[in-house]
Design a protein that fits this description.
Low-confidence stretches: 328-334, 499-508
Mean pLDDT: 89
Structural class: alpha/beta
Number of helices: 17
Distance between the termini: 58 Å
Shape: globular
Strand order of the largest sheet: 3-2-1-4-5-6-11
Helix content: 25-40%
């Protein structure tokens, strides 16, 4: 086997995060690139002896060139899913151009690109059209491109699967647009990964375009009915409503499912286009057992029930650390950082407290006043925000994970968890949990909320909720101690860290 590394872009995304361990199991050396090293380092495969982690941004040509050096081939698994056409189309063009140039400069043997089905002569959605344009840009370089065109990918925690799952789970009657009758040829994520890896091993795929799909051609309505049967739900009534536009449909999806309207719009627009394989040549080149839609849905539900979801649609993207929390300097940040902190001392070891903190959010809840958290999530959802979207795993947590309407910025077990707020509000917020082992064998747990208000509205927002925050945070610490089944030695009570300390709070 060629000892040069295989470059995987989009390694923390839904497909890339599952492809990397598959390549490692097959004996390949893998170089993974991403915008956040912390996020890459948190992946289960990060410590593998044949993995190399590289910080790079597809929009930064120099960093892509550096990442591609001394590699044999590259997987291009980068997609922008922003709803605003100009933003995502331009980003996709720049990223693809940088990849093509970097591959040529590094002398790669091939690029393997996963895009979408759909013919240019059809009336394609903006995102499907962009996927095809990306293929053309990659193919314009001197490095051969293998282009795999897939329709709907069925797998646990993919955006499309989650959208369907929550709609069918929560609604006994589904009012759907006309796309419910659109034919499609879904494919299991397991089969997609096998095709991707197989393109490295079969030279006859180099420089060619292949349609990939499962054995079933059916409608989205058929998929929903199969899902209901596999999930053990009563019969769902699917009623097409021709007047529902993609925008109206996306808002309905936004309210009913964890998938935000910004992501639902491109997904729903793509459902108006028939996506069926024109040819199946790749099946003879890379033979495998193709899962039916029923088998793929059954497997996805099994993995969700077993909490064995490796990657999730909500975890993709950059981890954006607000600059003001790293500076710890209110004047530099452009305003006053408002804080609300509580602490409690427990008769416990730090590891025992950490076991509880790492489970926060999702099905575990927030330990206190969960009804108010749910109300805040519902209000956020109505305002176009994330709402309580849950989490990938009930106890495993890593940088970049989504935890309801928060994003995990830092995880330092068993001492520190840092969450950045992604809910709609007039400012930026961060929630820190710090755990300190004390000389007498007890442990201090500190919980600190910090907020950088945006104008007068932000200041009024903070102080209007301040009494509620005090009540909730104090209650949270009390119930965290209760969940840990540990005696409270001191507190819960207030604490105010010095302005010089950001994420490194001094002992009182």
């Amino acid at each position: 086997m060629n000892k040069k590394a295989i470059l995987v872009s989009g390694a923390t995304g839904y497909v890339g995060g599952r492809l990397v361990p598959l390549l490692l199991d097959a004996g390949y050396r893998v170089r993974v690139m991403g915008r956040s090293l912390d996020k890459l380092q948190s992946r289960p495969w990060a410590g593998h002896p044949r993995v190399e982690l590289v910080k790079a941004d597809m929009l930064d040509s120099k960093s892509v060139e550096t990442a591609a050096q001394d590699c044999r081939a590259a997987f291009y698994l980068v997609h922008s899913m922003k709803a605003k056409a100009k933003a995502f189309e331009e980003m996709d063009r720049r990223a693809a151009g940088n990849m093509a140039a970097a591959a040529e400069k590094a002398g790669l043997e091939k690029i393997i690109y996963l895009g979408g089905l759909g013919e240019e002569k059809q009336k394609l959605s903006k995102h499907l059209r962009s996927r095809t344009e990306v293929a053309r840009i990659l193919q314009s370089g001197k490095v051969p491109v293998t282009f795999l065109r897939a329709a709907l990918i069925l797998g646990s925690a993919s955006a499309s699967f989650e959208m369907m799952r929550y709609l069918v789970d929560r609604l006994p009657v589904l009012l759907t647009p006309k796309w419910v009758h659109t034919p499609c040829q879904p494919i299991s994520i397991r089969n997609v990964l096998t095709y991707l890896k197989g393109c490295l091993e079969h030279d006859e795929t180099t420089g060619k375009t292949f349609d990939i799909g499962g054995p079933d051609v059916l409608t989205y309505g058929d998929l929903m009915r199969i899902y209901a049967e596999e999930a053990g739900l009563p019969k769902r009534w699917i009623i097409p409503v021709p007047t529902l536009t993609p925008s109206l449909s996306s808002y309905w999806v936004h309210l009913v499912t964890p998938v935000p309207s910004s992501l639902a719009i491109p997904l729903i627009e793509g459902m108006n286009t028939p996506v069926v394989c024109r040819e199946n040549r790749i099946r003879s080149i890379i033979p495998q057992d193709l899962l039916t839609c029923r088998q793929a849905i059954r497997l996805a539900l099994k993995r969700i029930d077993q909490h064995a979801v490796e990657t999730c649609w909500s975890d993709a993207g950059a981890v954006k650390v607000p600059e003001w929390i790293t500076r710890g300097d209110a004047p530099y940040a452009g305003g006053t950082i408002l804080e609300c902190g509580y602490r409690v001392v427990l008769q416990a070891a730090p590891e025992e407290v950490w076991k509880i903190i790492r489970k926060i959010g999702g099905t575990t809840g927030w330990f206190y006043a969960d009804t108010l958290w749910a109300l805040r999530g519902a209000m956020d959802r109505l305002a176009g925000g994330m709402g309580l979207r849950g989490r990938r795993h009930p106890s495993e947590i890593r940088p970049g994970d989504a935890v309801d309407f928060w994003r995990v910025l830092a995880v330092e077990a068993p001492n520190h968890l840092q969450l950045a707020a992604e809910m709609k509000m007039p400012g930026e917020g961060v929630l820190d949990f710090q755990i300190y082992g004390l000389p007498d064998g007890t442990t201090e747990l500190q919980q600190l909320s910090r907020f950088l208000p945006r104008g007068l509205t932000g200041i009024l927002y903070w102080y209007a909720l301040y009494p509620i925050h005090q009540w909730i945070f104090k209650g949270m610490l009390f119930h965290i101690a209760k969940a840990a089944k540990k005696k409270i030695v001191e507190g819960p009570d207030r604490f105010s860290p010095g302005r010089a300390y950001v994420c490194r709070f001094p002992r009182r």
